[in-house]
Every structure is written in C-alpha cells, then in structure tokens.
C-alpha cells in the first residue's frame, strides 16, 4: 500500500472507531466525603462522565487497600441547554474503627482515582470537635480556599460546614462551573466530611445540582434538611431557601417546620440532651444582620425568623427559643457578624460583664465571607443594638467545642494573613429550653402585626406572636 493510502486508511479506521465508541471518560473526579447514618460509616461520593457499570472503593488502615466496598451511581442530567450528563457514584463504608486513618481509592475496573485518606472521629460524645464554618464560597475569588486547604491538611479540622452558596453557580455553563468547584474543594472534601446546606445560588432547576452532588446523613430523600451529631453537639442543617422559592412547592416548607419542631423536641428529651447538650442550627439566610442591602435579614420581620408575613406562621425563632438552640450559624451576607444573644430583636445578654455566660437566648453569627465573585456586602452605618462585632474581611470561622459547657468561636481574616480578628466563648452551665415568653421582651410588631395581635386571639392557631 502506498504511504498516502496507508494514512487515509488509518484515518478512516480511527474515525470509524470514534464514531462507534465516542470519547469515554471513566476517570473518577470531584471526590468528597460525608458522615453516614451510623458512627462507623463514611460516605464516599465521586463523579465520572461515563457510566462505569460499577462503583467501588478500595480502602484500608495502615496504608493498605485491603478492603472493598461497592455502591451505586445515578445519572445526573443538568437542566441547561446542553443537558450534560454525568454519573454520581456513592459508596458507604461500614464497620470503620474509631480514630483510625484510612487510605482509599475510588473507581471501577475501568479507571481508579488517586489515593486519598481520612481519619475517623472518636466514638461517643466525650471529645472536642474542631470545625471550619463558612458560606458563600465561589469558583472565582474563593479567597479563603487555599488557607482552608492547608489547615485541613495540617489536621486542624474534623469537619467543614459549608453554609450554602457554592461555586456561583453550580448550574452555570451547563454545570461546568459546578464541576470545577467540586474539583477545587476536593483536597479538603476528600479528607474530612464536607457537610452542607443549600443557598439561593443553588436554586436552579429545583436545586438539582445541589441535590445530586451532595449526599448528607439522614437525607436520603434529598429534602435538603437533616440532623447529625459530632461529639457533644447536635447539629441541625436547615434549608432556608424553601420559603424563598415557593414555586418549588409549599408542602416542603410546612414539612420542614414540622420536622424541625419534632427534631428539636426529640433532642430535648433529657436522655438525649444529656448526651448532646449543645444544639447548633445552621442555614443559609440569617434571621439577623446589619448589612446595607435589602436582604431578608435586614427586614424588621424576616421570613426565616417569623415566617409568613402578618400571620407569622412557620417562623423558626420561637422554636429556637422554646427548645434551647444554643447557637445559630448563617451566611448569605458576604461579611462576618457576631450578635449578642438576641430574641425578638431584643438583646438577651446574661449580664453586662459576661454576656455569653448562660445567655437567655440563642447566639447568632453570620459567616458568609469565604470569597466569591460578588465581593462584599457592606454594613449599615447605624447597626442595631444586637450587633456585637462586624468585619468585611474575607475569611471563615473556627469552632472548637471544648466540652459540654464551653464552645469557642474565632474569626480568621484571610485579608490579614490568617489573623484572628474576633473570638467568643459561649458558656452554658445548663442546657435546655430558653423561656419562650421572656419578661424582658416586649413584642414589637408592624401595624399589621398589631392588628393581628388584636384579632388573632379569635383564631385558634399557634403563631409566633401569641405570647
Ligand atoms: Fe446567598
């Protein structure tokens, strides 16, 4: 065969092969982990472009990959024009020992990932978790990410809580932005549990990128709210966004409220509160803030705080008070703010000298300054009395649950090279319900609220304002 004929033949064969088989991508990527339903479990999640026909994790302690676990995968089709698809694999490792370093690789007989590792937590409640908290971290301008990566590799954290708003936005460019974001967090999220709640930037196609990419404990149905424990803390991950996007359904808003009330009641049973005395709730949009935008938290009566306007149904603040939530962590505002203990817009400090020692109401912080393309949200020049500390620096929050009575928070400024710019120790010598009708609080309502207070007593309904 002439050389030209040979080249032509080769091109034809190659072209035919490509047209028959297409380009395949079996290589695992975007590896991240979350805790399972039981203390001896870890959930491993990753993506492949093509279906590998199996989902496997090889893992083991002592650097040996001598155990195998299998799981399943789902085909995720993005809602964008291209209808890009990929496969999201999920394997639950079971029977893990406590305080043990496990190496693992993920994949299938078609392709395997690099080697990763995680260390299991101590069993039980008597240990002191260290957790990184932040929200609003994007793909662009993720300023805090490198520092968080290094600190995670240095073993400074047992878990990360990402309090909503990822990637900006995961669905953009037919979900390629979501893929790139998940690749960027892989060094952290493959090493320690990366626990989440949804933000407004996840809302496209009924939160489909969020629901498909993350697998959270006790959230098999992808309702986007769930509860879990770390050491002596009961965490509640809440979906503030359900009430802001009612086009996706009204029933989930009511169902979440009922779940929250039920879960808080269960957490407050003496035997449960004895094991997990701290109750920490986290969700994306705050109840309180002092930013100069017109977001919900700047309103006199925010949706998250008091629920449906005028009727004040389905608000969460009274539940937090009744069931003694100790700390509420929020984001959405691209800034950091620490509040004094507050209820119904009134400061509830324990005392002037020690405001956070046995406070009479939950403490709120807003930590949404990890870094994203929307830069900062400035503060008002006239902050409300419940605002204790504010910063526009990019950064994140460290939580150290020292023991059953002391919970320490500090704010890291990435702008200032990792300097701690704020700190607070919440001391609770007795955990339990706060007084939901404290004498210090005079209900403050808008004119419509006053009307409801006058006439609402004739309606047999449990509202926020009926005290
Ligand atoms: Fe947000």
Quick structural gist:
The protein has 467 residues and is of the alpha+beta class. It folds into two domains: 29-119, Immunoglobulin-like; 130-458, Metallo-dependent phosphatases (Purple Acid Phosphatase, chain A, domain 2), CATH 3.60.21.
Describe the structure.
- The protein has two domains: 91 residues, Immunoglobulin-like, CATH 2.60.40.380; 329 residues, Purple Acid Phosphatase, chain A, domain 2 (4-Layer Sandwich), CATH 3.60.21.
- Helix 2 packs parallel to helix 3.
- The protein is an alpha+beta fold and 467 residues long.
- Helices cover 22% and strands 28% of the residues.
- The strands form six sheets. The protein has a seven-stranded mixed beta sheet, covered by helices on one side.
- The chain is built from ten helices and 26 strands.
- It is globular and about 95 Å long.
- The protein binds fe (ii) ion (FE2).
- Fe (ii) ion binds next to loops.
- GO terms for molecular function: acid phosphatase activity; metal ion binding.
- Keywords: Glycoprotein, Hydrolase, Signal.
- Belongs to the metallophosphoesterase superfamily. Purple acid phosphatase family.
Break the fold down into its secondary structure elements and pairings.
Elements: H1 3-21, E1 29-35, E2 42-48, E3 56-61, E4 67-70, E5 72-77, E6 85-93, E7 101-108, E8 111-112, E9 116-119, E10 130-134, E11 137-138, H2 145-153, E12 159-162, E13 166-167, H3 172-189, E14 194-196, H4 204-213, E15 226-230, E16 233-237, H5 241-244, H6 251-267, H7 270-275, E17 278-282, H8 303-306, H9 317-322, E18 327-330, E19 336-339, E20 342-343, E21 346-347, E22 363-367, E23 387-391, E24 395-401, E25 406-413, E26 419-427, H10 447-455
Parallel strand pairs: 10-12, 11-13, 12-14, 16-17, 17-18, 18-22
Antiparallel strand pairs: 1-2, 2-6, 3-4, 3-7, 5-6, 7-8, 7-9, 10-24, 15-16, 19-22, 19-23, 20-21, 24-25, 25-26
The structure holds fe (ii) ion.
Domain Purple acid phosphatase N-terminal: 28-120
Catalytic activity: a phosphate monoester + H2O = an alcohol + phosphate
Keywords: Glycoprotein, Hydrolase, Signal
């Amino acid at each position: 065969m002439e050389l030209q004929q040979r080249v032509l033949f080769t091109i034809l064969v190659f072209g035919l092969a490509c047209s028959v088989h297409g380009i395949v991508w079996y290589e695992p990527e975007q590896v991240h982990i979350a805790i399972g339903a039981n203390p001896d479990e870890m959930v491993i999640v990753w993506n492949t472009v093509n279906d590998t026909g199996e989902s496997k994790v090889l893992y083991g302690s002592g650097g040996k990959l001598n155990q195998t676990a299998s799981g399943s995968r789902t085909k995720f089709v993005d809602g964008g024009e291209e209808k890009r698809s990929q496969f999201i694999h999920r394997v639950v490792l079971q029977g893990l020992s406590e305080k043990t370093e496990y190496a693992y690789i993920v994949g299938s007989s078609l392709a395997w990932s690099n080697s990763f590792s995680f260390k299991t937590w101590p069993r039980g409640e008597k240990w002191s978790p260290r957790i990184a908290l932040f929200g609003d971290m994007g793909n662009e301008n993720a300023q805090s990410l490198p520092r968080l990566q290094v600190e995670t590799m240095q073993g400074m954290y047992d878990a990360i809580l990402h309090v909503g708003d990822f990637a900006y936005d995961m669905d953009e460019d037919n979900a390629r932005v979501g893929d790139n974001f998940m690749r960027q967090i892989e060094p952290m999220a493959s090493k320690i549990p990366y626990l989440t709640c949804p933000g407004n930037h996840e809302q496209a196609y009924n939160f489909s990128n969020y629901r498909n990419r993350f697998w959270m404990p006790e959230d098999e149905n992808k309702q986007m709210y769930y509860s879990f424990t770390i050491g002596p803390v009961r965490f509640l991950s809440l979906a503030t966004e359900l009430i802001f996007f009612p086009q996706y359904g009204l029933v989930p808003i009511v169902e979440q409220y009922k779940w929250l009330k039920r879960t808080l009641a269960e957490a407050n049973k003496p035997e449960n509160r004895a094991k997990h005395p701290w109750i920490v709730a986290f969700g994306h949009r705050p109840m309180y803030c002092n930013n100069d935008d017109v977001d919900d938290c700047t309103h006199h009566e925010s949706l998250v705080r008091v629920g449906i306007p005028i009727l004040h149904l389905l608000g969460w603040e009274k539940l937090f008070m009744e069931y003694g939530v100790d700390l509420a962590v929020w984001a959405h505002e691209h800034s950091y703010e620490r509040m004094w203990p507050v209820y119904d817009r009134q400061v509830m400090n324990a005392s002037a000298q020690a405001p956070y020692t046995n406070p009479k109401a939950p403490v709120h912080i807003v930590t949404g300054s990890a870094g994203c393309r929307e830069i900062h949200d400035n503060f008002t020049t006239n902050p409300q009395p419940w605002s204790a500390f504010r910063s526009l620096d990019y950064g994140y929050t460290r939580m150290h649950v020292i023991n059953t009575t002391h919970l320490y928070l500090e704010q890291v400024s990435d702008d200032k090279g990792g300097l701690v710019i704020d700190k607070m120790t919440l001391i609770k010598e007795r955990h339990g319900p706060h007084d939901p009708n404290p004498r210090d609080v005079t209900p403050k309502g808008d004119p419509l609220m006053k009307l409801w207070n006058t006439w609402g007593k004739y309606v047999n309904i449990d509202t926020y304002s009926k005290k």
